[in-house]
Write a structure and sequence with these properties.
Keywords: Membrane, Transmembrane, Transmembrane helix. About 70% of the residues lie in helices and about 0% in strands. By secondary structure, it is mainly α. It has a domain at about 1-40. The two termini are about 25 Å apart.
Amino acid sequence: MNIKKNCGIVLIVLGIILTLDRTNEFKGIVSIIVYYIQEYWPLFITFCGVSLLATPQKTKKK
């Protein structure tokens, strides 16, 4: 997994969500996201740890 690529995708999605929150159709979507982040932040840390362990390490050839 490429960390730069994943962070870029997260920033794009976050930008879209914050843009949509200003319209009347998606009122309060940021408050819903904040609620889920407050409730499930340990799961996010666990996911980050698993993704770091799952990435293969590069070995140097002699």
